[in-house]
Amino acid sequence: MKKKDSRSKEWTGSKKSKENHPKKKQKIQIIESKENGEKAQKKNSGKKKKTSTGQKKQEKQKAYTRHKDDAQLKGGRSSYRNSRHLFGAKMSEQLEHGENVSSLAYEVGRELGLSDEACNDLIVAGFFHDIGKAQISSATEGKNTMLVEEMNSVRQHPRVGYDILKRHGFSEEICRDVLYHHENMDGSGYPESLEGANIPLGACILRVCDVFCALIQDRPYRSAFSPENAMKMMIEEVEKYNLKVFLAFQRVLHRSPDGSISMPEVRPEVRGVWKKL
Ligand SMILES: [Fe+2]
Q: How far apart are CA 137 and CA 251, in angstroms?
């Protein structure tokens, strides 16, 4: 069977959606970026000294920013400002996504009858599941020739997240769920292409919640899908998800008396999870 990322389905429908395929769009943006870079280089060739000074300043600023990131990652308890900074430029989008995944994962855990401890772990793992992206994006920032490398690098974010959370003393269960939150039941996920029962239950819960929350959120390259369409897309690829988890996830989202799909409210304890870092 041809392997596909769970979110690739959304781009296989209409001609219009193919034109807006994130990979295609990314390529277009990168080509444009290269062209702009070449134009800028030609334009500035007569004032080399000035450009060189500007570049040095930019590099210094980037180095300073990375240093600050590293210092915050290595530090103990962070302030909310620092926690926000960990998520970088896409901070608000990442925070919102983290809160949604966290709250939904908690409810799915409850629906499955998991213990209080396991459900509370899901709150933490859900909130921090993509924290590895912060370090990845810093490492690849400003490098125009890292297309393939950058993609491979981004696929390492679960492992980077695992290491960050481990360093900060989070439990093995939380770290492990973050490490495997992109694994699929059919073995098409990453970073270890685990299959079936080899994937921890918490990671299976994060996987389902992560995909759904990502689909219903606006992204730079597309608008949010309606919850109904997001659900249909996930059903089409249901072989990737733990069925028991998927059914619990559906029951949570269909709790509304009118049968419509509704996200659970962000739990109060989710707002304080950043303090644990
Ligand atoms: Fe992720």
A: 36
Residues annotated as catalytic are 133
Query: 158 CA to middle of ligand 1, Å?
Result: 6
Give, as residue ranges, everything with CB less than 5 Å from ion ligand 1: 130
Question: For the chain, what are the domain ranges?
Answer: 10-276
Which class in CATH covers the domain with range 10-276? mainly alpha
Ligand 1 centroid to 214 CA: how many Å? 10
CB-hemisphere CA count at 13 Å for 145?
A: 0
Q: Is the dihedral of CA 145, 193, 169, 80 positive or negative?
A: positive
Length of the chain: 277
Residue-wise pLDDT tens for the chain (277 aa)? Answer: 444 444 333 333 334 444 444 444 444 343 343 444 444 444 444 444 444 555 555 554 444 333 333 333 333 333 333 444 444 546 678 889 999 999 999 999 999 999 999 999 999 999 999 999 887 765 555 454 456 777 788 889 999 999 999 999 999 999 999 999 999 999 999 999 999 999 999 999 999 999 999 999 988 788 999 999 999 999 999 999 999 999 999 999 999 888 899 999 998 888 888 777 7
Give residue 44 CA to ligand 1 midpoint distance, Å.
39
DSSP helix/strand/coil, 77:
coil
Centre of ligand 1 from the C-alpha of residue 208, in Å:
11
